[in-house]
Every structure is written in structure tokens, then in C-alpha cells.
Amino acid sequence: MTIRRFGAEGGTGTGGQHLPFARAVEAGGWLRVSGQTPMRDGEVVEGGIVEQTTIALDNCVAIMREAGYELEHVTHVSVILTDARYFQSFNKVFAQYFGAHPPARICMVADLVVDCKVEVDVTCYKGD
Asked: Fold for domain 3-125?
């Protein structure tokens, strides 16, 4: 089995910090996208949960498309919110992306190491 790594050289995090992990890894038709936050060019985009969710999901979709996957290939999403009160607003944005192809999902509340409201990772599958 071949393993492909996307962005294996690592990205840039807040303050120019080098991130020592791949954006995504593909093996056997599966793609795992690393957790995405509402960052652009290595900096968190300030805003409410709707804006931050949109950016985090857009970041996931951009990485998926780079690897040749689309939203209908998403099988599971993990979500971390920093406040349970964000849940309903997050769900509204989530439904705009996945309404036609809802994946399995877990959503939890926890602190994040980046000062933002949400982090999202996705798992995709595309058979031969």
C-alpha cells in the first residue's frame, strides 16, 4: 500500500511557528485531514463562530481537493468547540457543507492550543 503525504514539509502556525505534521495523509483510499482552525497565512482570523467555522471547513475542503477528494467522500468529522453555546450556530454552517452527504461526526467542547473557537478534522474514503 502506498502512503501519500500532503504538506509533509509542515506548515506555518501562529507566530511563524513551523508545524511538524502533514496537512493530510492518504492510504488505501482513505484520506485523513489534520485538524483545521480558522487560519489564513498562519494567523487566526478573528470573528464569530459562523465565520470561524466557515474558514475551518473551507481549509479542510481545500486540502481534500488538493488530494482529489470532494465533500461526498467525507465519512467522519471530528469537531472541537471551545464553548457549548456555539453548537447550534456551528450546526447551521455544517449543514450548508454536508446537507446532501452527511457524514458521521463527533462534537466536543475543549480548550484549543490556538486562540480560536473551533477546530475540525475530516476523514474521507474514495474506493477504486
From this structure: 60s Ribosomal Protein L30; Chain: A; (3.30.1330)
